């Protein structure tokens, strides 16, 4: 299956599945999820789809990828039909990574409408300050994440910072553990802002978790990512977002990377404007298509 994903990414120039879908493909997921596989006459996989039913009453969510050699042969349509069957009477949302014309044509032909748009924005790192010295509030210091010690505090602040986000705010200890087990995980690039001593009653105020995509994952060269940048609501207005951003970009630049990406909702106008002022430009688009039975 991973070979199918790599072939699709090389052909389309975008990752065909979300990180979450890839993790669940490899490790399984919560109850209610389903994997759907399409194979050719020789038994080799030519398509894959993932369905998440989630909580009762919520929309079902799916993703579909078709091998380049099996396109324009009805494979994508068959996989989507199966997701619709499995979703039953629930509305179904399906992600189209890259907003490619073929995905748009298939979705609109089957009565889907654009429900959510996620922007990938990028900026060069060549002009990033290698040694930023941001002014932090009194009593606040930034330190690297400590596996085995900082998980509970980070999960609490992540839930508060992303309370209204449809995916990020619901992360569990298992979601965090899976990512810590990934080859790209590097605690040195997972920066936490603490008020006081974290081992003596200190309070976590926010964090900037960076990620490095290997060559071929987000382009021919390795690319950094502003993976998760979150500030506790009680710490808003202290300038921690900008401080943690600068420190994270410096870390990525120190690794020799030349480019960094991030994801942001298109309708989050203030955030998009902030990132544009910080030198980020729109690079790619992911669309969530929704269909009501």
Number of DSSP strand runs? 11
CATH class of the largest domain reads Alpha Beta
Helix content, binned percent:
25-40%
Low-confidence runs: none
CATH topology descriptor of the largest domain: Aminopeptidase
CATH architecture of the largest domain: 3-Layer(aba) Sandwich
CATH superfamily grouping of the largest domain: Gcn5-related N-acetyltransferase (GNAT)
Structural class per helix/strand content?
Answer: alpha+beta
Give the helices and strands as they follow along the chain. HHEEEHEHEEHHEEEHEHE
SSE topology sketch:
Elements: H1 2-12, H2 19-27, E1 34-39, E2 45-52, E3 60-66, H3 75-87, E4 92-97, H4 101-109, E5 113-124, E6 140-144, H5 151-161, H6 173-180, E7 190-195, E8 203-213, E9 223-231, H7 240-254, E10 259-265, H8 269-277, E11 281-291
Parallel strand pairs: 3-4, 9-10
Antiparallel strand pairs: 1-2, 2-3, 4-11, 5-10, 5-11, 6-7, 7-8, 8-9
EC number: 2.3.1.189
Keywords: Acyltransferase, Repeat, Transferase
GO molecular function: mycothiol synthase activity
Brief write-up:
This protein is α+β, with helices and mostly antiparallel strands. Helices cover 29% and strands 30% of the residues.
Describe this structure as you would to a colleague:
- Strands 1-2-3-4-11-5-10-9-8-7-6 form an eleven-stranded mixed sheet, with helices on both faces.
- The chain contains eight helices and eleven strands.
- β9, α7 and β10 form a beta-alpha-beta unit.
- The two termini are 30 Å apart.
- Helices cover 29% and strands 30% of the residues.
- The radius of gyration is 20 Å and the shape is globular.
- The model has no long low-confidence stretch (mean pLDDT 92).
- It is α+β, with helices and mostly antiparallel strands.
- The chain has helices at residues 2-12, 19-27, 75-87, 101-109, 151-161, 173-180, 240-254, 269-277; strands spanning 34-39, 45-52, 60-66, 92-97, 113-124, 140-144, 190-195, 203-213, 223-231, 259-265, 281-291.
- It folds into two domains: 2-117, Gcn5-related N-acetyltransferase (GNAT) (Aminopeptidase), CATH 3.40.630.30; 127-257, Gcn5-related N-acetyltransferase (GNAT) (Aminopeptidase), CATH 3.40.630.30.
């Amino acid at each position: 299956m991973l070979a199918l994903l790599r072939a699709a990414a090389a052909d389309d120039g975008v990752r065909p599945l979300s990180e979450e879908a890839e993790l669940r493909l490899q490790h399984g997921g919560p109850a209610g999820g389903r994997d759907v596989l399409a194979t050719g006459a020789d038994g080799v996989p030519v398509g894959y789809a993932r369905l998440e039913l989630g909580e009762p009453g919520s929309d079902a969510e799916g993703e579909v990828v078709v091998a380049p050699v099996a396109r324009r042969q009805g494979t994508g349509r068959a996989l989507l039909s199966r997701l619709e069957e499995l979703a039953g009477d629930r509305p179904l949302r399906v992600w189209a990574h890259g907003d490619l014309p073929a995905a748009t044509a298939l979705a609109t032909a089957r009565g889907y409408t654009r429900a959510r748009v996620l922007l990938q924005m990028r900026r060069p790192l060549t002009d990033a300050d290698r040694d930023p010295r941001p002014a932090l509030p009194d009593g606040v210091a930034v330190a690297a994440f400590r596996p085995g010690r900082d998980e509970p505090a980070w999960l609490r602040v992540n839930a508060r910072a992303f309370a209204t986000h449809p995916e990020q705010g619901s992360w569990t200890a298992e979601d965090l553990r899976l990512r810590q087990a990934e080859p790209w995980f590097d605690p040195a690039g997972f920066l936490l802002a603490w008020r006081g001593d974290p081992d003596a009653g200190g309070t976590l105020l926010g964090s900037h978790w960076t990620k490095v995509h290997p060559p071929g994952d987000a382009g021919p060269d390795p690319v950094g990512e502003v993976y998760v940048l979150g500030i506790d609501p009680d710490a808003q207005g202290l300038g921690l977002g900008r401080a943690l951003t600068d420190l994270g970009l410096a870390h990525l630049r120190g690794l020799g990377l030349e480019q960094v990406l991030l994801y942001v909702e298109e309708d989050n106008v203030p955030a998009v404007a902030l990132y544009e002022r910080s030198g980020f430009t729109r690079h790619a688009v992911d669309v969530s298509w929704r269909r009501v039975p």
